[in-house]
């Protein structure tokens, strides 16, 4: 009997940790969105797939540890893990990962600017040359039209 209670207590702790882990993953997703902003439809799709995978994660936990039986105390442990994570750690973790993804975003943008800057200067020079040549041709066409 003692081993059964120990196994159930371990399952409770595991469910608590998985609830906190689910919210940690969601905070990382939120931080990614802050660092790399994108549209509402993509955010909705990310949310949908994240929560589907979280549900599968919880379902597999129930299947592997409890033969698919849903126990109320395990659901309570999941929810308690989520709530305590949100109350105690979420802001700090979100700040850390938002800072990281913001830094990463700025580094990638800087790298693209560094790579594309010479191409941008070349395009500007090419545009000036084409514009100058076109103006010259337009003047020639105007002269021909005016002469006739």
Automatic annotation (TrEMBL):
Alphabetically list the UniProt keywords: Membrane, Transmembrane, Transmembrane helix
Sequence intervals crossing the membrane: 43-63, 70-88, 94-116
Signal peptide, first to last residue? none
Instruction: Please provide an example of a Pfam family that matches this protein in its UniProt record.
Output: Spore_YabQ
Does the UniProt entry include the keyword Membrane? yes
InterPro entries, A to Z: YabQ
Q: What's the protein name? A: Spore cortex biosynthesis protein YabQ
Native source organism of the sequence: Hominisplanchenecus faecis
């Amino acid at each position: 009997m003692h081993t059964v209670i120990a196994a159930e207590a371990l399952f409770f702790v595991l469910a608590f940790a998985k609830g906190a882990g689910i919210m940690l993953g969601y905070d990382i997703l939120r931080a990614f969105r802050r660092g790399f902003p994108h549209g509402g439809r993509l955010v909705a799709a990310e949310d949908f797939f994240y929560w589907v995978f979280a549900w599968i994660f919880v379902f597999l936990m129930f299947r592997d540890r409890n033969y698919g039986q849903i126990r109320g105390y395990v659901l309570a442990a999941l929810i308690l893990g989520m709530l305590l994570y949100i109350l105690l750690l979420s802001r700090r973790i979100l700040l850390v990962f938002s800072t990281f993804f913001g830094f990463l975003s700025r580094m990638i943008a800087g790298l693209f600017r560094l790579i594309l800057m010479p191409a941008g200067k070349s395009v500007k020079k090419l545009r000036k040359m084409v514009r100058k040549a076109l103006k010259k041709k337009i003047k020639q066409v105007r002269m021909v039209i005016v002469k006739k």
